[in-house]
Structure formats: C-alpha cells, structure tokens
Amino acid sequence: MEIQHFLHNHPLKFYENSDFDDLDCSGCGNSLSVQTYGCVGCEFFLHKSCAKLPREIQHFFHPCTLFLRIGSYVCNACYSNHSRTFGYRCKRCDFDLDVDCARLSTMKSEGDEDQIQHYSHRHPLKFLAKMGDEVLCQICEKVCSDNVYNCRPCNFYIHKSCKDMLPQKLQVFFHPCQLVLLTTPSYYCDACEKDSSGLTFRCGKCYFQLCVKCFRSSSASKSEGKQIEHFMREMEIQHFLHEHTLKLYKNSDFDDLDCSGCGNSLSVQTYGCVGCEFFLHKSCAKLPREIQHFFHPCTLFLRIGSYVCNACYSNHSRTFGYRCKRCDFDLDVDCARLSTMKSEGDEDQIQHYSHRHPLKFLAKMGDEVLCQICEKVCSDNVYNCRPCNFYIHKSCKDMLPQKLQVFFHPCQLVLLTTPSYYCDACEKDSSGLTFRCGKCYFQLCVKCFLLSSATKTGEKQIQHFSHWHPLMHFETMEEHEVSCGICTKLCSAPTYGCQGCNFYLHKFCMETLEKEIQLFFHPCSLISLSTPSYTCDACGIDRSGVYFRCCSCRFKLCIACSRMCKIIDKDYEDDEDDVEFEVVEWQRVEHFSHHHPLILVKMTSENYFESTCKICGKPFSDATCFFCFRCKLCFHKSCMDRLPRKIDQHFFHSCSLILLTTPSYKCDACEKNCSQLTFRCGKCQFHLCLECSLLPRIKPGAFEKIQHFLHEHPLILSEKKVVEVPCNACGAPCFGSTYGCSRCNLILHKSCAELPQTIRNSHLSHSLTLASLNSKERRVTSEKSRKARCRLCLRDCCDFAFRCNKCDFQLDVECALLKPRIEYPGHNHLLTVVEKIHDELKCNFCKTCCKDSAAFRCLECNFSLHLLCGPLPCTIKHKCHIDTLTLKDQYVEDDDEDDDFYCDVCERQRDPKLCVYYCSEGCPMIAEVKCVISEVMASLKGKRGNVELRIVGRYISSKMISKELAIEETEQNEIVKDASKSKYIESMAVLFDDILVSLEAAERKQLDDIEEAIRKGIETNITSLESSSEYTSSFAYSEEAFKRFMDRLDSVILDYQIPDFILEHEEFITFQDYLIPRTLIPTFQDLLSKNEDICAGSMLSPKAKSLIFYFLCGVIENMRATRIVDITDQKLGEWFACLKWVKYAGFKFQFIFEHMKYLAHAHFVVQARKRVEDFPVQLKQEIAQISQEIDKLKVKLRELEDQQEFYQRQEKSIRSSLTKQHCDVPSAIKWKPAADGLL
C-alpha cells in the first residue's frame, strides 16, 4: 500500500511501527507508533494521522489560510521550538502553528458564554463572575475583579469588556498595510520602540509591529493618538546631511555595514538610504544640528567629514562630528554625547573644560604626578581623571580661563586641547592644552600664558605687546652691552627688558612701535612679536628681536623691511645714475607682487634683451617696465595686472593661497627649488610657484603643458609611436597624442585628459565627479592597492573613475559614458549594454552566471541579462559576408542527421543550442554571435541608428533608442508614467498566496471541480517517470514503448506540489482584466495575439482564469528557456501536469496538445537513441567491473585456502605446546567471575 505525499518526492510505503521503533515522525516529531508511512531511502516517516493532515486549513487563531510545510520555526501559539517538522504557516504574516496546536478543535459555544473560544488565546476561555486573586488583564493591563474570561493553566485573563475591543484585523492611519493580531514570544514595537511579548498587531510584508498598549493609545484619545502619529512619522525622515529620504529598517538586513554617523556597527534599528549605502543608528539620526558643550564655549554644528577629535584625539574618516569652524575645533559624536555633570555645590567630582571626563577630588596624592597646567608636582588638593592620567591642582582649576584676551595679540583666544601644535609665543612644539585664535591661527601654550599673566609692580614692571613676558625698567645699561630688539643699536638710554629671554627695548623704540600694521604687499594684518631668531620673508636675512608676523600665513617681516616700503619717491634719485635705465615717470606704484615700491622705467638697448620679468620669466618685448631700484628687479605691466593676490581652492590645494615673497622654497607641485614670489598656505605650509599656479586648465586644444585637476604636477603633451603603457584613466594602451607626468608614471590619452570633471548619469539622481583613486606614492612605487569596483561592469577601476562619495558609488571611465538605450518588455527602465562582466553576476532570466560575457544591466533594479538572453538586432551588416545577416534562434534542420555544426566565419564547431546570424538570401552562410559581436555591439550602442531588436526564443520585439533627445524624452515619459500609476501599481501588486486567500467559495468550487476531473481522467496510479527503464536496446524505437511512455505522462498530476518554474513568478498585477505575473506579461501578450479566444469557452470566473493563465504562461516561458536536448522526463511530466488544468478549465487546448505530443515524441526519440548508443558501453563497463571483482575474490579464496592448509599442518604441535606451557590453568576457569580471589 503506497501513497504520494505532497511534501515528499517519493512514494511512501505502509509499515508496521515495530520496524522503526528508534525513529521519530517527520511530521510531529514524536516517536513512531501504531502504523507508519515512510520512505526508507530518505528516512522520511509519518504517523498515519500526520500523513493525512490537510494541505491547508482555516484556524480560529489566525484569520488567513494556513499551509502545511516542513521546516524549523517557533510556534506562535505555544512558543515551542521545532526543527525540521510539519507546521502550518502563513507566509504573508510570518505566522507559524505547530501540528499539535493546529489539531486543537474549534469550540462552538452556541450562545453559551460560560466558555468561549477567542483568537487572543489558543485554549478555550472560561467565564468567572468574581475573581478572588488580583490578576491583570492581558489587553488593558488593569486589575481583573469581576466578569473575566480566563485560562488558569496558562495564567491568561481578559475582561469581558476587552474581549470585543481587540479586532483580529486592523487598519491604522499611521501604516499603509493591514495589521493582523497574533501572539509571539518576543518582538519590538515600532511605535513606542520598546521590547515586548505576547499579543501584537503585525504587518508581515513590512514586518511592522504594534503592541496592544499603543493600539489602545491610538484609538483612545486624540492626545494619545497624536503621540502614536508622531512615532509613525519617524518611519521615514529627511536628514539635513543627506539629500535623499531615509527609511527605518531592521538592522538584521545590514549586519555587515557601519553607521555613517558614528562609524560603529549597525544595531537595533537603522535609518538608511539603500541606493547610497548611507545608514544611521536611530540615535545618530536624531543628533541635533547644533549643540552647546561644556568643553568648548562656541556653538558646535554637526557635519560629516574627516577630522581629528580635539577631545579624545581619535581620527575619523567620513563620519559625523561637531565643528566650530571659527576655532578649528572638532568633537566626535561619542565625546559630544558625554553628558554635562551638575555638581550643585559638591566639589568631590566636577566637570571642567580642561578635560572631557569628570574630575574627581583627592585630598592627598600617593604618587608624584605633574599638574597639566602649572607642570608642578601634585601632592594634595588635586582633581584627577585616572584612566586618562590627567591631574590639575585645585588652585590651578580657576586660574585657567576658557576665553582669554592677551596684551600681545589683538584677537580673543579660546582654550582647547589638540594632539600637537606650535606655540607662536615661545615657538616650540607642544601638545594638550592651548589657547587658539581660529581667525589668525595664533596659538599660545599654557606655560607662556602663565608667564604673560604675571602682575606688575609700580613703574618697574610693565606688559608690552611685543613680548609675552613682563618687561623690567632699567635707567642705564652701562654694565651690559645689549642691543635693542627693534633698532638693533646698543641700549644706553632708559631701557625695558626681560633678562630671562635676553630681550631689551629702548623706551623710545618701544613707545613708537606699532602693535599692528597693514602693508600693501600682504592682504592680512601683521602683528608685532619677538623671537630669538627668524628669517625675514622679504629680504631673506636671519635676524632676532621684534618682527611683524601674520599668524595665519606664517609670514615674517623684519622691522627694517616694514619701514623701507614707506620710502619717499625722491629717495631713488641718488640710485638713478648707478643703473642703465631712463625713468619715464616718478610715479610710485605699490604692488603686492613686491615688498618695495616700483617705478616705471625705460630700458636702454644694452640691457633690453638681458632682463627678464620676475613673474613670467620671459624677456621684454617692450622697453617699458616697472623696476625696483633696491632689488634690481623688472616686471611686465601685463603680468602685474593678471597676477592674482589670492587663489581660492586651487586644483593643487583646497585651502586659500596667498601671494607672498620668500627668499627660497620648494614648490610642492613641481618640486623645484624656487625663490621670491610664491603662493602659500600658512596653515598647511604649502608652497606653489608662479609657473604651476598659472598653468591652463583642461580645455579642447593642443596645449604643450597642462594642469589636470586630478594631478599635482604639470602634464606634458607627447606623441606615442609605439604602445608602451596603459592609460591610467581607461586602462587601454596609449598610442598617439598623450599627456604624461614622468615623475609619477602617469599617462593619459588626450581624450581621457579632456574628460569633464562632473557628469550626470542616468543610474543616479545626482552627479558623479571624476576622482583619482590612487595616490602619487602608489603610482611611483607600483604598489598594489585595494581597487574600487565599477558598479556596472564589476571591473576594478583604473586610477581614475567617476564617483559619488556620499553613495560610495563609482563607474569606470568607459562605463560612465555609456547610455541606457535598450527597451526590454516587462521592465520599467532602459537597459545599458556592457561588453564584458568581470565578476560573478546572476542573469535574471536563465539564472546562470554572466561572468566574462556581454550583458544588459539596469543598476536601479539590479537587473541583469546575458547578451543572448536579451534583445538582439534582427539584422546586421558584417564584413564577413556581402549580404545582410538575419538573426535566427537556432539553425538546425529537421532532416539533419549529423550532430556536428560549424560556424562559417571561424570554421570551428558551434553549439547548436545557441542563436546564429545567417544569410536569408540562400547563401550557406552561418555565423555565431561571438564572431560578429563587434557589429552586434555597435548596433546595441546606437552607432547604426535606430535598429529593430528581438528577444531570442521568445519572439518578443524590442527597440534601441539612438538619440540623446529621445532618451531624455523616454526617461521623462517614464517618470510621468510612474508618478501617475505608482499608487495604482503598488495597490494591485499581490502574491500568489494572496490570490488563493481571496478566492470566494464559488471560485474555490470551480477549481476543486477541475482537480476532481483531472483525477478521474487518469486510470492508473501516479508513476515516477525517472524510474522507467523502457529505453532498452531492441524495444527503444517501438510504438508500444512510446505508447507506454505517453500513458505515464498522462498519469502525472500536480497533487498539491506546484513546480518551482511556476512559483518563481510571484508578483501579480492587473493586466487586461486578469491577474498576471509581471514577468509573464510578454508571454501572455504573445499568447493572446495568436489565440485571442483561447478562454472563450471557459465558464470560470476572471480570477480563476487568471490562475489557469498562470500555469499556461509559466509552462510556455519555461519551454522557451529549455532546449529539446535538455528536457528530462520529470520536466516533461510537470508540463503535462500543469497543462491538464488548462484542458479541464475549458480553454482551447488542441494546438497545445499537438505541440506537447510533438515534444514528447522528439524527447522520446532523443533519449531512446542516446540509451541505445550508451547500452553497449554500459554493458561493457559492467562486465569489466564484475570481472575485476571476480579476480579479487579468486585471490582472496586462494589466501584463505593457504591459511587453512597451514593450520591443519601445525594444529597438533600447537595443542601440545599449549598444554605444556599453561598446564596450571584449568579449562573451567572461564566460567568464574573476573573478580574471583581479588578481595
């Protein structure tokens, strides 16, 4: 006795359980007992009762239809865990019910309210008028005193009034989908954001869950409802640091990603933009835009970038951070979250702006540690942070202000911490606490601050802005020979000085010294400071004492040069006779390119060709120029006019660059040693020579030298006559006109050098920027680095790529210029054709890998097709043949008995399964697609104009859009169409299970009648086609064998098991009054175009007809993707079984039946021929195998016979020896216990 169970592939045989006492039932998991159905080979056994469980049930505990399946799950009724056993499941709601809970019978009270069955609990609930104990209602969570329904074994209680308040299905205003009531051991409420258990309202599609408490709040009062509405608004937010909307996700979907805010792993709930791979913890998404923090007195603003935290000194790359731009102060998210402690008079623990952590008070110190402020030993009354090894005296705590105004700097200074800095007072490197002026970038160490804050005593000690220490008054300096720090003369008159620094000033010089000056050749103000040694950037002389300095530009100017720029015009008259120039006009010109005034002169013929302009370095074409008599320098007037004083964001450097003069420097662009004029960034100590600063940008034309915005050095134009190295942008070999930098091993095609800096790409809603992915050091050393991958072709990008840093999205240079041009039926977007896919990628049609082949791609939908699975040109013109070549699905003649097929282009054997291009004019010309791929790709890329396309094997036409205007119009039409129909399509998109659940009783009966008719139509039991062995030598071609084969095909039925090739089309939409899977719409259209009245004779409802079309179109689509040689008996049986539903549904079936009979006959013959050819080989192999086994057995037999003969000869001597040597051991000893005589 056998049955075929719909959850197992093989027939199940009936057994008595005594044969399998040690096994468990594969259905319920309990021990086998009484009678058993089983498959011994698979060890699959079922109780007789489990084998008869229905495939689908309606249960009071869940409103949807439940389907039987086998798997691992947690029961939503009893919370028990199950592993690989039967269970009833609602996939839509993610609801599971084990077999035992499903068997609980539904009780009918029939008006008796003493005991009821309620969907809030799996057991019957008993009514109690009075309660002795105080228990809480599971719904309202209030005390139950009277009128209660309960289940005492489960400790479950609900008020009678609450019973009807809780609906089994719910539609709330803050979620678009319907919610279903169920129970679960644990869940997270998306409204109140709390963990809970028990009753919940769930949307299985979105996995949105709502606890009962929030449900009551949303329906109880307006105020509570507004609170829930507020929570729901957080399901989708617009963050001010990202341009797209962020959706709320469960973190389980993005376990391998980090938060774009704090940089830590994602956990709990996540806001994200999947397209840009931008994700935030919910806490990070709620960070305020600006904060006030105890650690810094200014307002801090949230931004995303790379920085070093001024609190913990940790490095951050592309993460959130709070910044004060004015003070150049950064605070990471973790440090910003440190709460400000309020001591309220308690000084045992305080929060101080000198350290990010709370400081604890210690009256006595056991160890010798230094105070971070005064740098003296801390012995008692100390505040400390032991983890950071930070200590300060209690007296020093209030001595250090958070904001400071010092006499020697005009701007306000702010206290902050930094890992390293340069003190502009003592000119020493330091770290930790510093006072900074963000505007001038002036920094003062704590030690210099303490020295500068010393008190003055009467007239003997004063503070002067030229020195940061107090200056003592001296009437005479006869005993010591010291020089004045301003005029450099000996100090004999009344003098002020600092003996510790050996710094002295005449009283007159000190009183006449300006604190701050503004000069014509420097854009910033210069303040007076003093230092033991410095080099003047104007004259280049090493000096000491007082000087003028720009802290932001690091520009230094001696006192002499500052006064020289104020010389009156007539002072030059004495120098006029010393030079061979004729003064045209005594007009003093103050130009920022030189620190001395310039005079307009006319050169004599003797020095006309000898002098060069100090800006451009070229000789003079006109005798008139501007001249500096003191420095003997000449300047073109045109060069002075076009020279900028300041460059903002040069392609060499992102900071602003100021034009300065300096004695000598090294250009950071061309790395040449230069002198005089330079563009400098004082903060970064970056120098740029005039030649590099004035290089032309990339423009169409033949510049011999250009400056590319992605490279730090000039690029030189050259002609490559031989192929030497690949282009750093596209990777193709370089030949012809190229730009290169020999120092960095960088070479670019002329066309690649002229690529635009930004492009608009159809794959993203925002622009892509051309970026360099490799640093100069890697190119010079040829170091292998981790490559960025192109999202389109999956190839590692070269040094250049078009990139969006926000989305971490990049395209290589070649793919970035490709345009989507191909229309594909059933897909909403145009497809882009790619010549080669360089990594693993699954084709959405044939489900195989696309690696190393051409493909069609849509990045928006992650949709991919092999070149041969997508639309191809119907005709092409190729140099291999004079006539036009036409696309043909396969070129195999019915009467061709030869299995060898050749391509006439390469003259090699070809695969008959693949499509070809052939000459339809009668020439015997057949070409594989790969042999004419150049012309195929040219047509698909739009180089041949508008061409007609066709999808191979499916007879679906398509087209290629060649003009950019047409692309824009098509995209615009798609946007308008999507906007107008998005709500309609979304609302109509349903799953197969949804259609089954929505069937009415009459429609279910129609389908049951079809199933019953199918079962009556077969005379024999279900037979496994794969077990058949009809195709044996002499009977392989007989009509009788074919008849038996067809009888077996006719006996196959689905029996509750729908094939996977049908179920893979799961999303249905409304199309021509029917519910059709979106992916099967092209097939459905082809079917109706040739057989418009195919269902005219059917009496089924439209929804039932939709299911029949589902089977029919699914079979046709699978047949299109399957070659006859690849058909198996099982596949053919599944097609026949599905089409039986079409036949008994009243559809026109004759044309389908004729084609299926043709396929069955072709498959039968192919398999019979194969088996006839293989039969002699199999017999020969079996004979050889058995012969080898016989030979082995013969050898084994001879060995055993030799052992027997040897034993018989030695038996007597062995017995005699045993008796003599062990005569003291009696034979009966074997019956004694092993412990006999031990104790």
Summarize the structure.
This protein has 1239 residues and is of the alpha+beta class. Helix content is 23%, strand content 30%. The protein is built from 26 helices and 69 strands.
Please explain how this structure is put together.
- It is a single chain.
- The chain is an alpha+beta fold and 1239 residues long.
- It contains 26 helices and 69 strands.
- The strands form 18 sheets. A 4-stranded antiparallel beta sheet has the order 1-2-3-4.
- Strand 51 (736-741) and strand 52 (746-749) form a beta hairpin.
- Helix 21 packs across helix 25, helix 24 (1102-1120) runs antiparallel to helix 25 and helix 25 (1129-1144) packs antiparallel against helix 26.
- The longest helix has 72 residues, at 1150-1221.
- It is extended, with a radius of gyration of 45 Å.
- The two termini are 63 Å apart.
Low confidence ranges? 221-225, 568-579, 698-702, 775-785, 964-988, 1020-1035
Please bin the fraction of helical residues.
10-25%
What is the arithmetic mean of pLDDT?
A: 78
Biggest sheet character: 4 strands, antiparallel
DSSP E strands, number: 69
Distance between the termini: 63 Å
Radius of gyration: 45 Å
Looking at the structure, what is the overall shape?
extended
Number of helical elements = 26
Query: In percent, how much strand structure appears in the residues?
Result: 25-35%
Structural class: alpha+beta
In which order are the strands of the major sheet placed?
A: 1-2-3-4
